[in-house]
Every structure is written in C-alpha cells, then in structure tokens.
Write a structure and sequence with these properties.
The structure is a homodimer of 358-residue chains. The first copy, chain A, has 358 residues and is of the alpha/beta class. Chain A folds into 2 domains: 201 residues, Isopropylmalate Dehydrogenase (3-Layer(aba) Sandwich); 140 residues, 3-Layer(aba) Sandwich (Isopropylmalate Dehydrogenase). In chain A, 41% of the residues lie in helices and 23% in strands. Chain A is built from 12 helices and 14 strands. In chain A, helix 1 links the parallel strand 1 and strand 2. The relative contact order of chain A is 0.17. The model of chain A has no long low-confidence stretch (mean pLDDT 97). The interface between A and B is large, with 62 and 62 residues. The structure holds 3-isopropylmalic acid (2 copies).
C-alpha cells in the first residue's frame, strides 16, 4: 500500500475541532483507495506562542518539510492580536508559507446548488458561480524589503512596505494559473493595477508573455478596483483569476463571501516541489471555539484538495467531494449554513455523516 | 451676489456629455441661492494628450489652482491604454490630485429607495445602505518612492512600488474621517492590514490616537480582506470607512457596485485649503460615448458636492439632491438604471428633467 506522512497543524480557535474531524475523513477516503496515511501533530500559531513562545517553532517547520502534505486548521485569536509582529500567530502562517515555498494559493469560490440561498446575492446572480482564484503567496508586499518604520525628510515618523515582483516570480505563478485555467473553463483573468503601479506593469507584461505557451487559454486583464466591482455585479463572468498576494487576499475573500458559504471553502498552497499546505479559508472563529458548532466541511474539502493536489490521489479526493455533496443533499447543516427545513448538526456529527456517506 | 470660478475638466468618453448637463444644473441651483458661477473649460486626460501631448497641461493645473472648485467628467479610453506611464490619462488624474493636494476623497455609496432593485444584492441586504468611504488620495503606494524597475540579487528584472505613510498624512486623513463620521452616524471603521504591513501598523496606531479628539465617534478597526467580505455580507453594518489610497480604490468601487447604481455616485476630493475636485466615480465608458446614453446623475450629484464641500453653499446642494430624487420619483431613468415601468431617457433629457424639478 502507498503510505504518506501528513503534518497536522490544528492551530487555534475552532482549528483543533475541524482538523480532528477532517483527519478521520481523510484516513477513511485514503484507505478506500489503498492509501495509508500517518499523522504527526505539531504546534503553530497562538497554540505555539503559548507553549513555545514563537508562532512557528523550528520543529514544526522541519516536520512539515519532511512530510508529504500539511493540513492546517486555523490560527489567531483576540488574545494575541496586540502582540508585536514577530510574536503574532499570522507571522507563523507567513513564515510557514515562505519556509515551504508554496507560492501558488488556489482558492475555489463555488456556489453549491444546495446552498445558493445562503448568498446575499440574488439567486440568479449567485447560481452557478464557480471561480478559482490563484493567488501569489510568497512574494509582493507581504514579503518585500525594505519594510519597517523610519523618518521622512520632514522628520516625521513613517511606516513602509515594498511591493516587488521579479520576472521569475510572475512567470511561475502565471504558469500555474494557466494550467489551472486549462483544466477548468479555459479562461484566465489577470488582475492588477497596471495603470498606476510599476510592479503591476511588469506583472501584466509577463502574464501576457507566458500566454503564448497556452494558446488554448483565453487571457484577459482587469484592474483590481474593477474586479472588486465585477465580482459583485456578475461573478459568473469569471472562470480562473490570477493575481498578486495582497489583491488575492482581498479578492479571494470577497469571492468566497459571494458564495455565501465561507464555512465550506477549502484552499491549497503549493510550490514547485515539496509538500503543499492545505487549509480552510475561514478563520479561527474564537467566539464559537470548543462548542462543537464549527462547520468542518471547509477543512474536509481541504483534505480532498490535499489528496488531489498534494498526493495525486484524485480518486480519493473525488470520494470526499461526493460524500460532502451527499451529506448536504441529506439535509445536514451546521449553524452557519442552516436554513429552515434542514437538520441542524454540530461539528462532530457533520463529520460522522460525511463518514457514513463515504 | 457671491461669485465663484469653476474649472470644468470634461475629459474623455462620456465626460463632455455629463459635464455639459451637470454645468447647467449647477448654474441653475447656484443662481437660485444668489450664487453666480463662472466657468473655464480646460483640457485633461486623453483629450489633453491628443491636443497637447501631455495628460495634464501646466495651464490646466494652473487654472484649476486659481479657481474655487473643479468639476471633472471622466478620463481614459482604449486608445491610450498602452501608452507609457507618463503619457497615460490616469497619470493626469494622479498629478492633478497631487498638484491640488486633495488628500481626502469622499465617496458615498448610498442605495436610493427608488433603485434598490438595481443592486445584485438581495433587497433586504441592500435596502438602506448608506456608507461613506473616506479614502486617502495623495499618498501610499500610488505616490511612494522608490518605484520603478530594477534587478534583484539573482539578476532578474523586477517591478516595485513603495507603500508609505507618515504620521502627518495619517493624522490629517483620520481627522477628516472622524469629522465626517461625526456628522453622519457617528461610527468610523478604519480598514488596514495591520497583521502584515508596517505601514498599516502605523496607520492603526495613529487613527487610534486621533480617536481621543473625537470621543463622540465610535471607532473600530477591520482588516481589508474582512472588509471586502463584510461589504458583501452585511453592508448596513458600515457608516463611515477610512482607509489608505489603494484599499480605498478597491473598497469604494466594491461598495458602489453594491448599491447597484454606479452611474449615480459622486465623489469629492478635498485638501487642507485650496479648491476641491469633484467627479463622478464612474469611468469614461468609451463604448457609449457620444450617443446621449450616459447617466448624468453622478456628475450632477458631484456638482451638489461641489456646492456643499467646495463652496459651502449647502442650500444649493440640497436643491440639487432634492431635484434628483424628484426626477427619479417621476420615473425617469437612463439605460443603466432602467427597469420596466419607468421612462427611458437620454443624458440630455435627464438633465432637463432635473432642471425642471429644480
Ligand atoms: C492571516 C493573514 C496573514 C492571511 C493573509 O493575509 O494571507 C489570511 O488573511 C489569509 O488570506 O490566509
Ligand atoms: C483611474 C485610476 C488611476 C483611479 C485610481 O486608481 O485612483 C480610479 O480608479 C479612481 O478610483 O479614481
């Protein structure tokens, strides 16, 4: 039997609950395809800060690197919100992304037919939305140097960051995005602010150049302000979107909210080689942590992405996706997606129902 | 009679049509309050590029500076899209903002009761939305230095920009925003990315400090990715939003699309002293230019903001706002806001109806 090692990073808030449930589903789906999964649980985020004084202990990064794929719950919470930068849970997340070199973040925003009414958008606008945002994850203003605090020529204190992209960084994320678009609807929209920013001008130039390697994919360009509008006006016009780190942060969250089911959406972060990082796009939701109220489906679907993009076991991924659909068809809903006439369940029970459907 | 000089910058695409109509409304509203307006029309954007080879001729900036307020139509078009940066219409816009020092951009996003069904959001979500986005307009990554193209230590070409804010820049925009919030619902939400960016950390620190001068305003903070979501999830939670230049560009466009009536929304850009710049938030819409199809109401309402924020003639501003409401109540609609049962009119006719209602 094939055997893989998985690093589990439960993290903070609802993270441990959703990861525990998703792990069982992952194991069950794997074993049905003859894949054995071994787990190692490590500390990250606030949990690591409390236990080890840093948001990403060296052992955690080392274990993650040595494994075949990583499943992350969520990180952060009020408790650490006012920490200095190097002691923020978020810094642990940024450091593991950089440490693993997972430069391509895939964030699907799909409106499931069972949940179309959960969207705040009108049914006819939301129905059938199926967008994949490919966000550059290890470059741009998140990591650019110089950064910090200084003094300007008037003697005033300043805070500053650098948005910077190299040709190599743009080319590699563009290629991932074209590959993704090719396997989906064949349409790629590159989002930038090339009418103002030099970093975006180079972005647009390189994405346009890489397009010649993918003659079967239709490329368009859109300014980020317009993209933020078009996602609200007519999200169905989009198939695959590729954009930089900060624009991707904003637009992928906007797109996911448009689906109305943010508790349902997974993400995959992958690099050139080495293990990928898989996590729900929702946060740690400290307000409902430990109450068995969290929706584990985003993490379960992240486990499916782990099987597909991380381990290449598409058949097992498909099993999970089908089981989730069936569970929804059977009427089971956590609080965040509940509507009258469906069956309200907690986090654990939702996991059990998915296991049954498997 | 009080007398003021107004610089008109019709610009490109539908700009000339909507400015011509708005000018007549502006004059009529002014004269009813004993205010005489004199106009000087100047070149800007693509029109200036074609006629004078630069997007903002020196005479235009000088005339604008010497006047009491500026009314701008729209700039840009496919024709100049591939121009080098210093020859882009957009560069003219950025230069006039900087040249006038109009650091505070006020962008209302209001859902008018007559147009609530134009929103793609469900009626119960859109109804009653009334947000004012206060965007910092002359700093941040739009203007920060260093910027340009270079080579990194691997010898690869790069494009880069600098996001930078000084204490003075943050303090003055924060004060404007608190003043605005005080006159509205008394709630200010400051949007940043302080969990990642140093420029945002300083932003949050200073906005928090300035809050002590406005004990009657309730301040909250939100990360930009969350704000992009919350605008879709529940826009009614927002009263006044203050944010930096690039986040303001994105979020104000998103907010305006949520109202469903982007052809209706005005904006005001004001500085410490000197003339303000007033413009619709929509673009130059080259596809419908010259066809008498454009919606002039955003420019007409920008003229109202000009009277209120630019000249301090609130009574005349109010007249325009009431006339616009009445015109909508009378059922007149341009194509962009048309719905069955209303009367479809062109740009000029819409202007005439507003004049009648005045
Ligand atoms: C927590 C934060 C640093 C992170 C980001 O901005 O990348 C999050 O918003 C995300 O999108 O994964
Ligand atoms: C045209 C462009 C430079 C401008 C901006 O980004 O500021 C526009 O989008 C706006 O919001 O007024």
């Amino acid at each position: 039997a094939r055997s893989y090692s998985i690093t589990l990073l439960p993290g903070d808030g609802i993270g441990p609950e959703v990861v525990a449930v998703a792990k069982d589903v992952l194991s069950a789906a794997g074993s049905k395809e003859g894949v054995e999964l071994r787990y190692k649980e490590m500390l990250m985020g606030g949990a690591a800060l409390d236990a080890a004084g840093v948001p990403l202990p060296d052992e955690t990064l080392a274990a993650a690197r040595a494994s075949d794929a990583i499943l992350l719950g969520a990180i952060g919470g009020y408790k650490w919100d006012n920490n200095e930068k190097h002691l923020k849970p978020e810094t642990g997340l940024l450091n593991i992304r950089a440490g693993l070199g997972v430069f391509a973040n895939l964030r699907p925003a799909t409106v499931l037919p069972q949940l179309v009414d959960a969207s705040t958008l009108k049914r006819e606008v939301a129905e059938g939305v199926d967008i994949m945002v490919v966000r550059e994850l290890t470059g741009g203003i998140y990591f650019g140097k110089p950064r910090g605090f200084g003094t300007n020529d008037k003697g005033e204190e300043t805070g500053f960051n650098t948005e910077i992209y190299s040709v190599a960084e743009i080319d590699r994320i563009a290629r991932v995005a074209f590959e993704v678009a090719r396997k989906r609807g064949g349409k790629l929209c590159s989002v930038d602010k090339a009418n103002v920013l030099e970093a975006s001008m180079l972005w647009r130039k390189r994405v346009t150049a890489i397009a010649s390697e993918f003659p079967d994919v239709e490329l368009s360009h859109m300014y980020v302000d317009n993209a933020a509008m078009q996602l609200v006006r007519n999200p169905k016009q989009f198939d695959t979107i590729v954009t930089n780190n900060i624009f991707g942060d904003i637009l992928s969250d906007e797109a996911s909210m448009i689906t109305g089911s943010i508790g349902m959406l997974p993400s995959a972060s992958v690099g050139e080689s080495g293990p990928g990082l898989f996590e729900p796009i929702h946060g740690s939701a400290p307000d409902i942590a430990g109450q068995d109220k969290a929706n584990p489906l985003a993490t379960i679907l992240s486990a499916a992405m782990l099987l597909k993009y991380g381990l290449g076991v598409e058949s097992a991924a498909k099993r999970i996706e089908v089981a989730v659909t069936e569970t929804l068809d059977n009427g089971f809903r956590t609080g965040d997606i509940y509507s009258p006439g469906t069956t309200l369940v907690g986090c654990k029970r939702m996991g059990e129902e998915v296991l049954k459907a498997l």
